[in-house]
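Journal club side-thread
Mid-discussion, someone asked how the predicted structure for our own chain would compare to the paper's figures. Pasting it here so we can look after the session.
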Amino acid sequence: MFQNIKEKNLSDERKAQALSRNLTEGNPFRVLLKFSLPVIGGNLFQLFYTLADSVIVGRTLGAPALAAVGSSSMIIYFVLCFIQGFTNGFGICLGQKYGAQDEKGMRQSIAASALLSILFTVIITALCCGLSHTILNWIQVPQDIYRQSWEYMFVILLGTGATVFYNMISNILRALGDSRTPLYFLVFSSLLNIVLDIVFIMPFQMGVAGAAWATVLSQFLSALGCLAVALRSYNVIRLRKADFCELGSAVMEHLKLGFPMGFQMSVMCIGQLAMQASVNGLGSAAVAGYTAATKADQVSVLVNNAMMSAISSYVAQNYGAGKKERIRQGVNACLIQTELLNILMCVGILIFRSFIVLLFLTNPTEEIIRYSNGYLLCVAPFYLLLGLLAVYRSSIQSMQNAAAPFAACIIELVMRIGATAILTSYIGYTGVCVASPLAWAGACALLIPVYYHMMRSLQASDVSSSLYQMPKTATPS
């Protein structure tokens, strides 16, 4: 019996090795490509949660219901950004411990991540659900869609725990080099989400709330699946009582990186909330067209976020291992891959922009189509700026510099709100559309010089260290 147990444990370890990837070895371009492709697939399937909601809601319940989902989507995205930010920060801490081959540190990192995730879940759920009506009034949701908008948003926010659960476990797995397991369960949950959308909306007649419940349940099951595989395959995730002892320094380390990352991603969304509020003031047709366009635009955002996750894990592991030159090689490789993807997405969206609204509405008005096309024509050509922002910001964060990315987020916030408030008074809806490209450009103007300054400093420290360690030559007598 003991032999069978031993063989099973060895088999689980082999499976873990097959799934995980040591990002400190091998050709940087190929390593990043193999790691990032499953992350891209996972993010795109995650988009299908809300995309399926919008398509099914729009085609079964009509334009007002689609506008209701869209009007609250920025609030949901705001919360999701904070969750993704702090769990990604926790993943960076774990990735650095993994790169340094510090098993005790890895276990404490996972324990600290779990405790802090529970704390943030309780706080976020209580605040968002308690202030739901206040928030919707602040962003000026039209009265004809207010009730449906509140129902959809409240259910999604009530299920915040499922979102935190999934993002925490998926970032843990990616920090260990496993980008495939989260993808497998997202494929499953996305398909389940579509089925539950149809069942809850049509036979059960639950309206937009049914679409929200389908999203929450699907994501929760995805998180459970990831956790089951993680516990079976990775010994370091099987936490013991001792791993929760003396966590003070680990908790502080995770808070120092995770909270600023969550906060800065939420700060970015405040600007988008200002944009949504301006659109809401233009009426239901503008909201419907803007919603359809931003759903298509999210494909680019999530692909760039996937490259952010990939380069974060890569830089964190190599920074922990002390491989500074390999960081530079990986960042250059990631920039090439990211910008090629952005070019393809820009061309695709511009070619097929007139068909995007038809995915969500059976008989869209010319006004709705005009609003949708206007947004895509202004934003898609600037995806290259978004790619630069994603790669440089994540690289800097993974080298333990949280100040510069936070400052870049403040720049984004100011430029989004400023463009929305000032330009809309002169050029109307177009002012909302150009706010994002202006914000990306402002953030890149700070982050790119900071990255190259950090790399020069790291290289200089390596040279100084090597000179210090050189044996002194004997002085001739």
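Post-session note: The chain has one domain: 8-460.
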